[in-house]
Amino acid sequence: MRVFLDANILFSDAKSDGAIRRLLDQLIELGHELIVDAYVVTEARRNLERKYSFGIQQLERRLDQLSTNPHAHTRLDPEYHHLLPEKDQPVLAAALALNCAVLLTGDRAHFGDLYSRELGTVRILSPRQLAEILPWNSA
User: Fold this and answer.
1) What is the rounded average pLDDT of the residues 64-68?
2) How far apart are CA 132 and CA 139, in angstroms?
3) Which domain range does residue 45 map to?
4) What confidence tens digit (pLDDT) does each residue in 23-45 have?
5) Which of 48, 57, 50 is nearest to 9 (CA)?
6) pLDDT single digits (tens) 75-119
7) What is the 3-class SS of the chain, one letter each residue?
8) Phi and psi for 73 in degrees, rounded to 5?
């Protein structure tokens, strides 16, 4: 499964060794393709530099494990403009342009009303929702 990661997912993974990091590790271990573009990487890096600069090294390590498209986002289809603030539209546009099955985001403020919905080919999920549908290994 192709999973597009929002900047807040990268940020959470980089700042602490918690549930998000375990989820991403499990997704990679299960063979899912985790995808980002320059837009979300730049946002995550900017927020880490301002708040948790120690997380930059973890971000760089994680980026080595991800598929990165430098210019993935295109303009979002006008039918979706009313659903998201302008700053979040490139995230959904990139997930759609890169043929991802899931957009993984912890941004409840802007994406919360869209959790579990499919927009085009992309299903928007919170980390908890994605974790609940994964076939976790029992070992």
Assistant:
1) 96
2) 17
3) 2-133
4) 999 999 999 999 999 999 999 99
5) 48
6) 888 899 999 999 999 999 999 999 999 999 999 999 999 999 999
7) CEEEECHHHHHHHHHCCCHHHHHHHHHHHCCCEEEEEHHHHHHHHHHHHHHCHHHHHHHHHHHCCCEEECCCCCCCCHHHHHHCCHHHHHHHHHHHHCCCCEEECCCHHHHHHHCCCEECCEEEECHHHHHHHCCCCCC
8) -70, 140
Residue 75 inside a domain? The answer is: yes
Question: If you average pLDDT over every residue of the chain, what do you get?
Answer: 93
CATH of the domain at 53: 3.40.50.1010
Q: Which of 90, 104, 94 is nearest to 32 (CA)?
A: 104
The verdict on residue 139 lying in a domain is no
Taking residue 129's Cβ as centre, other Cβ atoms within 10 Å add up to 14
Instruction: Indicate the number of domains in the chain.
Output: 1
Task: Please report, rounded to a whole number, the percentage of residues in the chain having pLDDT higher than 90.
Answer: 87
